[in-house]
Amino acid sequence: MTTLASILMDGIAYGMILFMISVGLSVTMGLMRVVNLAHGGFAMLGGAFTHWAMAEAGLPFVPAAVVGLLAVMVLSVPMERVLYRPIYRMGELPQVLATIGITFIMIASVNLWLGSSLLSIRLPAAMSGAVDLGFRTLPTHRLYVLGAGVLVIVGLFVLIERTRFGIKLRAAVDHAGTAACLGIDTSRIFALTFALGAGLAALGGILGAELLPIDAYYPLRYMILFLTVVAVGGLGSITGSFVAALALGVLDTAARYLFPDVGTIFFYLAMIVMLGLRPQGLMGRA
Amino acid sequence: MRQILPFAVLAAVAVAAFYIFPYNLAFLTRVTIMMIFVLSLDLVQGVAGIATLGHAAMYGTGAYAAGLFAIHVWHDPLAGLAVGAVAGAVIAFVSGLFLMRAHGLTLLMLTIAVAEVLQEVANKFSDITGGTDGLGGIRMGRLLGVWKFDFVGQTGYVYAVCVLFLVMVLLKVVIGSPFGLALRGIQDSQARMRAIGTPVARRLLASYVLGGAGGGVGGALAAQSTQLVSLGVYSFQLSAEAVIMLILGGTGRLWGALIGTAVFMTVHEVAASVDPFNWLFVIGALVLAVVYAVPQGLMGLPAEVKRWIGRLA
After folding, report:
1. Domain residues of chain A, as ranges?
2. Of A150, A286, B17, B160, whose CA is between 20 and 30 Å from A275?
3. Residue of A nearest to B251 (CA)
4. Which fold, A2-116+136-277?
5. Is B291–A90 a contact, with Cβ atoms under 8 angstroms apart?
6. A29: which chain B residues are within 8 Å (Cβ-Cβ)?
7. Contact yes or no for A265 and B112 at CB 8 A
8. What range does the domain containing B85 cover?
9. How far is B163 from chain A (nearest CA, A)?
10. What is the 3-state secondary structure (H, E, C) of chain B?
């Protein structure tokens, strides 16, 4: 019973982190039709900036995290304009090549700047202890992650379903050309969405540093993980990413708790089964 | 003549490399084996247009099959090569049965998953495969009963180059055949090919199996020349690097696969030995330069340069 509860708690927290990092990838891939292998790089950069702000500039956790988040978002706008825009019209494979190249440059930059060792992000005392719920205790960090994940999905829901920006974004996802003909400035939508996705990845990277430790090779190590969430959830679907991230998070955690010696095989078999049953992903459109 | 000249150049380069870098034969052999692997990927990806990031599945299976065959059955190199080819083809056939129904990102992810599952299986059955320690103790018999595999790797290099030629000629024939043209047609438009009566799914599966056999040959050669098979033969990194080399050189034209592999591996080797900490900058810059300046790959460089000069004049 306690094992089950720990699996659920850890799995859901892990799933929330996966969701935060992957949702931006899903939306940008659905919107711009770019296979973006460099997305995990934004999570890594968020963690790296935060680590730097805490270790070098001596900021406490929350301001440092804000610095990391903003730095990534500010950096992502010129990157979208210069590096990504030319590859929107290319085929899948040149996109794979270009975004792997971008990933390499990100890794090499962080490696040069902060070295190849682990970039620790120490949580403040308020977030690192355990909470006593009476019948059992929970690590506080997991609760914060849970809360952040819920806030993100509610925020995204409101943004996409209830604002003018959301309407334009949905129109551009459906058909960018038609949306542009109707007077929607799609290139601005692209840039804003890209920055938002990068920012969410950074947030996930910072909050998830305890589960997915940050170092220079982070984007390569977890690339497959994030892409799996997107593929299983369905391109461009926020709900799909959410469900897929939670399902894969709980499944992976459960496999690690219950069958520690079979490694990651469960994760990949689950992916094969899910994609075999629904090639477009859980919520993807055909 | 136009068909033969490139082969003559390739032979000349292979012979020249043998005499100019007599102490780097191990590296040259690795490049040659990688060329075979990337060529097999070119058939699948460049000609038939099947996007894959899991071609290592076939390479790894060929490597383990050839290694186990040499240890337990017979140490003849050519027989081992054939076993590797068959093993690669079988795994491509089995995985291809469900892979060929997917497209785009789903296909990419499924190909990755197949290679990862195989790696995990190889890790689990460590009493057969050696697990993380690798499969050691592969002893090779004389090539054709005559040439012994020597310490410097001269036999290994010549052997790999001969196999490369064979694979190259075979692929040229395949690509020029009606089957090869059908694959090209499928890449351009599946709907059109279906309309003129081509069994699209069967053609794609056939090309995947053929590419799998080529990948298996590459893996078998690697197992024979290094006399060791590690779990790394199934790694995502290997699949991804092969794709990088292929697109770098230019897809669908075979020679691009050779050029891309040679350039990538040479730059990688030199950059990593000059600056072991920052070599990734060089690789990243090379990759980005090709994507943005010559999207057709290095094979498209002459045409692109002509265009630039034309614009200046």
Report:
1. 2-116+136-277
2. A150
3. A93
4. ABC transporter involved in vitamin B12 uptake, BtuC (1.10.3470)
5. yes
6. 105
7. no
8. 4-312
9. 28
10. CCCHHHHHHHHHHHHHHHHHCCCCHHHHHHHHHHHHHHHHHHHHHHHCCCCCCCCHHHHHHHHHHHHHHHHHCCCCHHHHHHHHHHHHHHHHHHHHHHHCCCCHHHHHHHHHHHHHHHHHHHHHCHHHHCHHHCECCCCCCCECCCECCCCCCHHHHHHHHHHHHHHHHHHHHHHHCHHHHHHHHHHHCHHHHHHCCCCHHHHHHHHHHHHHHHHHHHHHHHHHHHCCECHHHHCHHHHHHHHHHHHHHCCCCCHHHHHHHHHHHHHHHHHHHHCCCCHHHHHHHHHHHHHHHCCCCHHHHHHHHHHHHHHHC
Whole-prediction pTM: 0.89
* Smallest Cα distance from A75 to chain B, Å: 18
In total, the C-beta contacts within 8 angstroms joining chain A to chain B are 125
Residue A279: its chain B contacts at CB < 8 A?
101-103, 106
Domain count, chain B: 1
Best probe of the A interface among B116, B187, B251, B299, by most A CBs < 10 A, is: B116
User: Which of A86, A101, A112 is the closest to B278 by Cβ?
Assistant: A112
ipTM over 0.95: no
pLDDT by 10s per residue, chain A, length 286: 677 888 888 899 999 999 999 998 888 888 888 888 899 999 999 999 999 999 888 888 889 999 999 999 999 999 999 998 888 888 778 888 899 999 999 999 999 998 888 888 888 877 777 777 666 677 888 888 889 999 999 999 999 889 999 999 888 888 888 988 998 888 898 899 999 999 999 999 999 888 899 988 999 889 889 999 998 998 888 889 999 999 999 998 888 888 877 767 888 888 888 888 888 888 776 4
- Chain B residues whose CB is inside 8 A of the A268 CB are 113, 116-117, 120
